[in-house]
Design goal:
By secondary structure, the protein is mainly beta. It contains six helices and 42 strands. The protein has a five-stranded mixed beta sheet with strand order 13-20-17-23-24. Strands 3-2-7-6 form a four-stranded antiparallel beta sheet, with no helix packed on it.
Length: about 550
């Protein structure tokens, strides 16, 4: 009986132009007698050509190089199969059929994965495993498959180009400002609105069947995620899925190898037609590290805990003895009323700015005076109350309970998405500079006595992150809480309150001299409402921020 050789050559493809590079066939170390089959293969990325059976993906150059692996196997229509004749991965694969007669001008060729048991049965695994970043030797056992029509050549060989019939995802996570070492990616779980895994039937034109699972988990080795920019070599992770129109939710599981702390980050992808024979990069910003956040009394020179050592760093806990001496004028002998008002006691660099200048050429009658003051020290670059009004009215502020952030060793969730000033200005036929004007456009919103409880205007907050397409128009503020708790309460000020449930952010404007009130504005939000909060204590510690 004649022995038949099938040669299958993988190739590199320039994705931008879909042009094939020249390939050089390789002869197996021990060549068997028979008829040779020589093949090439194609794959697309995103919208543009994949091969068998592992790949090297260069995202910057937009190229894919595919290899046959030593444990690969190909099949024919009669379930006759041949295993690879080589021992290391190669761009040309040699397969020897030791049974059957081959005289036809064409044969259908099938690849059903390294653990395939027949020519037409493919299992896209619900659990896939990749041990090293940016490697794809696992896709053969995860559901990779392909078909080709082998054609007899004048030399008596058969040539074919393998077309892949699965779809492929390449996850590319990144983070921002991560100062702690040890954060790694351990798994990626994808959940679809329909099935993407299970058993399928492979035909010459593609996969048929409905599968049996809408979830796939890719277990990874401890892939570093400290990269601020997308990096294939650092943590590129590959998953095989069934082609089709899917709405995917991606859940990244991370761990700190130093502390053992873990966390999950969820990303929702828009509905998309994931085509067979195509590789789709999935980039994701997992979290930003806010561990170095400092909290300030209003416009203090230094932060609230400057030169103090926390009793519990991860929880932001200090002691009563560490609190700034922030009594109001009239409640301490350290105050000299002047004019000007002077403070002669301890912690002068940590207490609030008690002599802020007035906004020039602006008067506005409210319950405390007819002037507004502005910050000159730590809070001077924070948004003014006029900017808060624009954010409040036109910023489409949205609570996102899934958005993740890192704070002192742990992953937390919760914060607000706010439309950027450039978007607000463009949508309202004005300029970013005009949003900062000291005018009377929003007198109703900046009135300190507005609101049902005279604590500033508030309204229901939107829910959920903006769409993937719209996300670049927004910025994110995590719910970092405050020091001091509820206003007019006896809560100790050395504890961090409302963390991961509410955001309190400093306003560079102040509406009352500290001689007659304890209040100032803050930008406040939680899962139910957003507020230009006018009852924030001038003696409470808030994080700083900048308008974006």
């Amino acid at each position: 009986m004649r022995k038949i050789l099938f040669y299958a050559a993988a190739l590199a493809i320039v994705l931008a132009s879909c042009s094939q590079k020249d390939m050089t066939d390789k002869t197996p170390e021990t060549e068997k007698q028979g008829t040779a089959f020589e093949g090439t293969s194609e794959v697309n990325t995103g919208e543009n050509p994949l091969s068998r059976t592992s790949l090297d993906y260069d995202r910057a150059a937009r190229t894919l190089t595919y290899y046959w692996e030593p444990n690969d196997k190909i099949w024919l229509d009669d379930n006759n199969s041949a295993e690879a004749d080589f021992t290391v991965k190669a761009t040309t694969g040699c397969f020897t059929f030791t049974s059957g007669t081959f005289n036809a001008p064409n044969y259908n060729v099938y690849y059903t994965g390294t653990n395939g048991t027949s020519h037409n049965t493919v299992n896209i695994a619900t659990t896939q495993t990749q041990g090293t970043p940016n490697t794809t030797s696992h896709i053969g056992e995860s559901g990779d498959c392909g078909t080709a029509l082998a054609t007899r050549t004048s030399a008596g060989k058969y040539g074919f180009t393998l077309t892949h019939r699965s779809a492929y995802l390449c996850f590319l996570p990144r983070t921002t400002n991560v100062t702690e070492t040890g954060w790694v990616l351990t798994a990626v779980k994808v959940t679809s609105d329909n099935n993407i895994a299970g058993n399928y039937t492979l035909t010459p034109t593609g996969l048929t069947g409905t599968g049996s699972s809408n979830e796939i988990t890719l277990n990874t080795g401890n892939f570093d995620i400290s990269n601020a920019a997308t990096s294939l070599d650092t943590n590129g992770a590959y998953m095989v899925i069934a082609p089709g129109v899917h709405t995917l939710t991606v859940e990244y599981t991370v761990k700190n190898t130093n502390t053992g702390n873990t966390g999950t980050i969820v990303k929702h992808l828009d509905s998309k037609d994931y085509k067979a024979n195509t590789l789709y990069p999935v980039t994701a910003h997992l979290f930003e590290d806010y561990s170095n956040t400092k909290y300030y009394l209003w416009d203090a020179q230094e932060d609230m805990w400057h030169n103090k050592t926390p009793a519990n760093y991860s929880e932001g806990l200090y002691t009563a003895a560490d609190e700034p001496a922030s009594e109001l004028p009239g409640f301490s002998s350290f105050w000299i009323f002047g004019p000007p008002l002077q403070y002669t006691g301890p912690d002068a660099d940590r207490i609030y700015n008690y002599n802020p200048p007035q906004v020039p050429s602006f008067t506005f009658s409210h319950g405390y005076s007819n002037t507004i003051q502005y910050a000159t020290r730590s809070a001077k670059d924070c948004p003014s109350v006029w900017e808060l009004a624009w954010y409040y009215d036109k910023g489409d502020i949205r609570w996102d309970g899934e958005a993740a952030f890192l704070f002192r060793g742990k992953i937390y969730h919760g914060g607000a998405w706010i439309k950027k000033q450039s978007e607000i200005a463009a949508e309202n036929s004005t300029t970013v500079a005009a949003l900062k004007n000291h005018d009377h456009v929003y007198d109703n919103l900046i009135d300190p006595d507005a609101g049902m409880m005279s604590d500033g205007v508030s309204k229901t907050i939107g829910q959920g992150a903006p769409s993937t397409a719209a996300l670049k128009k927004y910025f994110f503020l995590p719910a970092l809480g405050n020091y001091g708790g509820a206003n007019m309460s006896s809560d100790p000020k050395y504890k961090l309150y409302h963390f991961a449930t509410e955001g309190f952010y400093t306003c560079s404007s102040n509406y009352c001299g500290v001689n007659n009130a304890d209040y100032c504005w803050a930008f406040k939000f939680n899962s139910s409402k957003v507020q230009i909060y006018s009852l924030n204590s001038i003696r409470f510690g808030l994080p700083l921020w900048k308008a974006k």
